[in-house]
Amino acid sequence: MEYDPKEKNRIAGYEYNTLMSLMHVSVSKHLLDEHFTLVWANAFYYELIGWDKDEYEARYNNLCDTYYADDQEELAKLTEVVMDAIEGSKGGYTHISHMPKKDGEYVWVRMVATFADEYIDGYQVSYTVMTDINDLVLMQKAQTVTYNALPGFVAKFHIDKDFGLTLLEANARYTAFFGDDCWDTGADPLFLQNYAQNQQAIEASREKILSGQPISLGLTVKGVDGREARLQVNASCVDWQNQEPIYLAIFIDITDVTELREMQQKLEAQAAELKETLTAAEQASRAKSDFLSSMSHDIRTPMNAIVGMTEIARIHLDDPGRVENCLDKIALSSQHLLGLINDVLDMSAIESGSMALSNSAFSLPDFMENIVAIIQPAAAEKRQHLFIRTFGVEHEHLYADPLRLKQIFINILSNAVKFTPEEGSITLTLEEFPAAHEGCGQFRFTFADTGMGMTDAFMTHIFDSFTRERDSRVDKTEGSGLGMAITKRIVDMMGGRITVRSAEGKGSTFVVYLSLHIEENPACYPALPPLRVLIADDDELMCEYAAQTLDALGIDAECAEDGEDTVRQIISAHDAGQGFDVLILDWKMPGVDGLEVTRQIRARIGEELPILIASSYDWADIKKEALSAGANDFISKPLFKSTLCHTLKRLIYAENSPIADKEKKPQYNFGGRRFLLVEDNALNQEIGVELLSQAGAIVECADDGIQGCEKFAQSPPGYYSLILMDVQMPVMNGYEATQKIRALPRADARAVPIIAMTADAFAADIEKARESGMDGHLAKPLDLPLMLQELSKLL
């Protein structure tokens, strides 16, 4: 008799399912996706778990992770086994699982899975055979234990969800000690004897007990004869009843040895503590000795340069070029010396607890522009590649201590520049994630370099004070050995955390996690017309993120992966009459770089397409060549939403481009304004008068606070436009002088701007200056551009 193919398949399927059912074997087909989706299963699969096929599909939608939703621990075990098999290319796995059933009970099954060379919707298929081994497991658990042959007291308890104990079995020693009443009271021997330490020990193990984990604890109990005993309890979960654990416990009487053991443990703990203290003290002493030896050298180096260059300049006063060169080197050495001193002062302030954090509003794009401006020149000098990336940054206006945040960034990045060889790369990535607390953003800052890396031994001490890697390459670099210790302390003070991973010869990666307060009012961006923008960048992730950012602004954005692709897309779109409105072009791309792409586009389609050159490098370095190639404007990386929006607005609406102005330093003119400089140090007076006079100000001096008050009081109203007040002075300090001036019975005494000048740049000092009535704060030594900028704001 001939069967058609369909009938043959039906009969074969029936025979297969019948055979599997007789063998009590479940066969199922799954996708290796995030849900471990069930594609097909035989009848015994559903029989095994107690669900009808239609009920199962309706309730769980064939998603295995949903089926295990009430048993996350078992789901985690299964997921770990599957992922281990996938990642290890094992071709399958074997696993014993505690599988939930419809009636709330569990069945033990043995899973044997094979990964097939078959794919559905892009996901690999797994065939799984499950065998019911419930009886075998229960048999093993039910094996008889001869309790009386075991040492100590032995008992089996059922523990309900309310943490109540029911005694199920016990050996003769247990009942002899607690008495026959223990069968009536159940939990009485362990719980109802009111010993505080018993309750504390048992409560501490509550979660472990209810989840069936092994426990070990000590109890103090009274026997039926009134004798008090100290018992060591070791218990394991041997079964479950109605999802409640059954524990087998062994109680060992350690009364006689407890007191002696406790005394011995105390002595051992004290000895270990003393040894650790001594070792730590010796290590700290050695570290400080090494630090002082290193610092004496590091401080002498810039000091020698300052003294030597000063002498050379004095000899060559008739050679302005040579004098200018000497002054440049003196300025660099002075900044380096100041950095070393600041590290020591910061560490001292942190360890004494006198460093406090401010909480000020700041702009993340402006902050990053400042960071790049500081780090980029040093990186460019070593021809290093500096990459700045942003992902998911929705909030650009934040609240924190920007000065200390800047210190974190500069400490890590300057080390990256210092210990990365020429033509290496440094990548800073900024990411924002939803925070647990309202009004905050969770930020992750990742600093990665391709530098020399660190040994595993040194990584454990990277955040210790006075430590540096012992390496001949490190010895050639200058530093205090305090930078990373300061960084770690500041991160801790800001409520964040910092991690590091590194490998010798492969570079280092530091990750800083901070929760920062955000501006509650969402940023408003200017409306832009419908635009079609092409973003060209060989950094695929950065390119895609920039495109997503523009999409959020209502702009149609597309990506190009290199120079050749950029030219091809621009020409193709132009020839089709669907040209792009703007091209954002990365300057540094492999192969054909951004400037060459600009030249090719101008040669092919002329000047009609606005081209923005994007770079984290200083625009001044490439401006002349970029404008010559045909670029219209510049946009700095990282590409924040506000940066993209305002740059495009300026470009589209033909506003005055700030490119030319970016290079120009702001010009300050205080002509006709009279300043009072209250400073006890004659040299500082001379420097202040000279610098301020260069900006057109008329400067008068007072040698201390009393003189300053007298000069102001004796002057006509409105005579002084501003007062620069030193804080640490003899006779009367700057805080008192400010309060006396503010108290004078004249209107200008309350209105005249008073700026503090001090070497103390901590948040507490700034706050103290404000409380005394001062309007601003300048840190010594005076930074001329910063000083002029601050004075200009107040005037």
Description:
The structure is a single chain. The chain has 795 residues and is an alpha/beta fold. It folds into six domains: 5-138, PAS domain (Beta-Lactamase, 2-Layer Sandwich), CATH 3.30.450; 144-253, 2-Layer Sandwich (Beta-Lactamase), CATH 3.30.450.20; 273-352, Orthogonal Bundle (Helix Hairpins); 360-518, Histidine kinase-like ATPase, C-terminal domain (Heat Shock Protein 90), CATH 3.30.565; 532-663, Rossmann fold; 674-794, Response regulator (Rossmann fold), CATH 3.40.50. Strands 11, 12, 13, 14, 15, 16 and 17 form a seven-stranded mixed beta sheet that branches. A five-stranded antiparallel beta sheet has the order 2-1-5-4-3. The chain has a five-stranded antiparallel beta sheet with strand order 7-6-10-9-8.
Indicate the CATH topology of the largest domain: Heat Shock Protein 90
What is the gyration radius calculated from CA atoms? 38 Å
**Alpha-carbon distance between the termini?**
108 Å
Question: At the fourth CATH level, what is the homologous superfamily of the largest domain?
Answer: Histidine kinase-like ATPase, C-terminal domain
The outline comes out as: extended
How would you sum up the major sheet?
7 strands, mixed
Beta-strand share of residues: 15-25%
Oligomer: single chain
Per DSSP E runs of 2 or more residues, the count of β-strands stands at 27
Modified residues (4-aspartylphosphate): 586, 726
InterPro entries: CheY-like_superfamily, HATPase_C_sf, HATPase_dom, His_kinase_dom, HisK_dim/P_dom, HisK_dim/P_sf, PAS-like_dom_sf, Sig_transdc_His_kin-like_C
Domain Response regulatory: 532-652, 674-795
Pfam family, one: HisKA
